[in-house]
Amino acid sequence: MNKGKFFLIASSLIIIVFIAVYAGITLTSNLGKSDAEVSAEDAGKRLEKLYSKISVNTAEPVKGQIDINPVDVAESLPEISKFPITVTNTTDLYVEIFSSTEKGGTGTDGWLSDAASDFNSSNPSINGKPVSVMIRNIASGTATDYIKSGKYIPDAFTPSNELWGEMVKAAGVKTELISSRLVGNVPGIVIAKAKHDELVNSYGAINVKTVTEAIANNEFAMGYTDPFASSTGLNFLVTALKTFDNGNPLSSEAVKGFEQFQVNVPFIASTTIQMRDAATSGMLDGFVLEYQTFVNTPGDLKNEYVFTPFGVRHDSPLYALGDISNEKKEILKAFTTFVTGEKYQVHAKERGFNGLDDYKAELEPLDGPTLSAAQKVWKEKKNGAKPIAAVFVTDVSGSMDGEALNRLKESLTQGQKYLGKDNMIGLVSYSSDVTINLPIARYDTNQQSLFVGTVNSLQASGGTATFDGVVVAIKMLQDYMAANPDVKPLIFVLSDGETNEGHSLKDIRGLIEGYKIPIYTIGYNADIQALQSISSINEAASINADTDDVVYKISNLFNVQM
């Protein structure tokens, strides 16, 4: 089975490591060569031709009042009911447990949920009182945000690995380790066999140190996931930093080494699904994944790829949180004894857990402040020496009038705090025509004020010329890069996905492919497939903003990509 077919079959089993579910699609095109294949030398001519057919206006930027307070994570988080309860308590005295998604879900990813249901059915009691557990399925990084911010603190937390527990502890939340391991798992780098053999011949062995060297030497293209949201992504980040300075992962030597390595990392995914789609396209030689997912994916994965473990183990520790009662602690201890018994450990192995138990953590435990500082290093250095130049393309057609436009404005005014002062930001709006509302400039305090004021002044009317807006954004970026070549271009399209005027995707698809600019799409009451068809061209993500967690979703998207 070839790589593309394997990953499409595997999509339903890949763990989503960020709360936002970005569903990629495969676009089948019947375009002729004149539409789909634009050479680098022809791209400029094609861009000018398309641009000349668009009615482009220039608006006077409007200043707005900016909020200089730090980002309020708690405010951006949705109500906890957004995350499903996979096991409901059956008694009045119970503990609520946040569980990571690879074990607290359903089906293959439902080992802990099934064990918890059986625990409740066994009619357990503490001091003569009937007790039970409740399991809430929530990704470790997102759960950590709830707990650290105080938005919602459950009785207990079982993340994928101990790193999140250390971060919760460092935030001042009282934690007590009930068990260092509920079930065994490890993260790893999954590498295509041919590339694996090539790297072994060149470097002698495969580990994070040799992988970072190969990436720095531009001999290996690997993607990894957002270390603010993904357990495997955070693990990879700190392991990589340690390869540059084992004694101090935050030293200038470590940071410099990481920055040089990061220059040649082609892809950082918001989710594993987004990374899967990039691998499907042949863009990546390898990617990060947990072993439980690796062995559970149908097809020929184990025959075509090699799994190399790294970092700390993902053994699902269990923590009691806050000032819970002794009775609740006793429930947690009884539950731990139940699920770590032979019967449920055998069940766990059937689900892909408890493999590679001979792997010993190659990373010494890190404390919460060090982990938070490592995330900060990643945020500042992930783009290497290249700042981002991004244009936001906003839909102000009549179909966006009302709630959709209001949500678009809220998304941008709240999410803009993540855009980064060293990046370059511009904004256009479109209906039947296209308006350049804010030319590209460094996102200093003045540009931030203009951005917020411009967003708040947007009004909806007219038709929908989405692809005209994209063409104008590409033209703005190309003009800016002619004078400032050392930037990385991005486009964000915020729309309902409907197009009824101007150019079509068929008209500009070749141009998007030729310039290789990722286009992230955010849909409001949207035709999501239409937006996904744009994002899928250059391996970008698409977000459905029709939920109460849209600000959190977009903030995390900006945090990763900007």
UniProtKB/TrEMBL annotation:
Domain VWFA: 389-562
SMART domains: VWA (SM00327)
Gene3D superfamilies assigned: von Willebrand factor, type A domain (3.40.50.410)
Transmembrane segments: none
Source taxon at top rank: Bacteria
InterPro entries assigned to the protein according to its UniProt record, in alphabetical order: CLCR, VWF_A, vWFA_dom_sf
Record PROSITE patterns: VWFA
The protein's name in its UniProt record: VWA domain-containing protein
Organism, scientific name: Paenibacillus agaridevorans
